[in-house]
What we know:
Layout: H1 4-22, H2 27-40, H3 46-49, H4 56-73, H5 76-88, H6 92-107, H7 112-130, H8 138-148, H9 156-169, H10 175-195, H11 218-223, E1 230-235, H12 251-255, E2 257-264, E3 267-270, E4 283-288, H13 292-303, E5 305-307, E6 322-329, H14 340-343, H15 345-349, E7 352-358, E8 361-363, E9 377-383, H16 384-390, E10 396-398, H17 411-427, H18 432-445, H19 451-457, H20 460-478, H21 481-493, H22 498-516, H23 518-535, H24 540-550, H25 562-571, H26 575-600
Antiparallel strand pairs: 1-4, 1-5, 2-3, 2-4, 6-9, 6-10, 7-8, 7-9
Helix pairs in contact: 1-2, 2-20, 4-9, 4-18, 4-19, 5-6, 5-7, 6-7, 6-8, 6-10, 7-8, 7-25, 8-10, 8-25, 9-23, 9-24, 10-26, 17-18, 20-23, 21-23, 22-23, 22-24, 22-26, 23-24, 24-26
Amino acid sequence: xxxxxxxxxxxxxxxxxxxxxxxxxxxxxxxxxxxxxxxxxxxxxxxxxxxxxxxxxxxxxxxxxxxxxxxxxxxxxxxxxxxxxxxxxxxxxxxxxxxxxxxxxxxxxxxxxxxxxxxxxxxxxxxxxxxxxxxxxxxxxxxxxxxxxxxxxxxxxxxxxxxxxxxxxxxxxxxxxxxxxxxxxxxxxxxxxxxxxxxxxxxxxxxxxxxxxxxxxxxxxxxxxxxxxxxxxxxxxxxxxxxxxxxxxxxxxxxxxxxxxxxxxxxxxxxxxxxxxxxxxxxxxxxxxxxxxxxxxxxxxxxxxxxxxxxxxxxxxxxxxxxxxxxxxxxxxxxxxxxxxxxxxxxxxxxxxxxxxxxxxxxxxxxxxxxxxxxxxxxxxxxxxxxxxxxxxxxxxxxxxxxxxxxxxxxxxxxxxxxxxxxxxxxxxxxxxxxxxxxxxxxxxxxxxxxxxxxxxxxxxxxxxxxxxxxxxxxxxxxxxxxxxxxxxxxxxxxxxxxxxxxxxxxxxxxxxxxxxxxxxxxxxxxxxxxxxxxxxxxxxxxxxxxxxxxxxxxxxxxxxxxxxxxxxxxxxxxxxxxxxxxxxxxxxxxxxxxxxxxxxxxxxx
Length: 606
């Protein structure tokens, strides 16, 4: 017989899962609603419901964001990528191997999605240099980030499971524990990705493949549908646009026409400001969104504009000091779900968005009201000075890396601090929160980054999401929900060997991760697996490791992990591409985690 508290918690869990899977609410907001639900329902006291914000896992997560920023700001990851690019030469296999292994290596010391974001521009440039489609290398980079997170303590799910074990067993997991058990499945997965996965990926030419610094490639314009979408419109003397500013002209909002330049008095003004006032005789260089012809005809008739018959080559967009650039939303972005109109993008950044690449196709109509999604690639046009400023904006990833200011003189201290954090996590009894925060403070003190940059580096949505989810583990244990779900599971595998028990519990965790994310799976499934472990004759420490490693097997969908969503737009992938490429690796990983847990578990210190 289910108690009322178990029923309440199950209802809350179902609603939480629905919010996360449907995408109706942001994950961090859904987590805060969960906190309030646990408190108002009486399942937890207010102190317990908000206790996640004081947990060591959250402090360690904040510190890791700062450590990662220190490595990026000093150019550690970039120099590694450049060296690997030189080593790979013209060999696609060596390039895929080098970039995949680099991402995995960075994931040992930093957040997985951040590692993928750091390597992605380097990989796109290197792939372009040797004529390899980015779609052949970007999924391996995402998978490399996930696999690199297995043998380390420094991933969100691993930190959460370690914290759960400390609360229930009195001993948390260490860096050495994860390395001993996680190294084999990570290595096996990386070998599979490097030798098999990339060869079966589709060859596409999406955002990023043909980017050139200060030089427009014709194929890029064709890709975004601009080659035949650039037209010139003459403002007649009787036009109502005369003496009206660009911002108030409604050309973009009503007619879906983006003014990228103005010919006036023998000169071309590219990327004009919103305050620019039109004059009779001006020739507007316009990028027309599809269906462009209908919009053009309506605008010409109502606004008394005359379309000039001469063809407009897309190369004109890079005359003078302006150019085209492709950008992605970064893992740190706060812009997801907002429209370009709400952001006042043109006024805020001094750049125009000409098209959005989403799920394998360009969008050129109604851009001002298009809500941004994680994984979108944006084709922007504007002055190179503004583009260089955008490179340092944490909201975006610019798919070319020349000119970004780095503190290379602080590179050696940054490497030393990160190595010190890793060694201290292995060799000392200090908590991971203490060790990582000490490293973060040192990064700031030695000048690897400023305090302001440290604040900007922290992914506050992730912090709030994790802090909101953590009290759920208390409720799952206190209400008896873990025992009830564990008994249901054990009914099906009663009397099975530890091998079968580890395989089933690991498989469920790996399946839940595809729809609930690693963090939610760790908090929801972790307590259940830990309670079931002793009944199956499995040490809880082993089971905790197996579940934590399984949450890194997020290979099947672009929604399973932000690293997958990050490369989706830049690689021109569709959801089925992830499932096809990831299914063999997912099955392989579950088997490897099971074998590694049972084989190497006895070697772990007790």
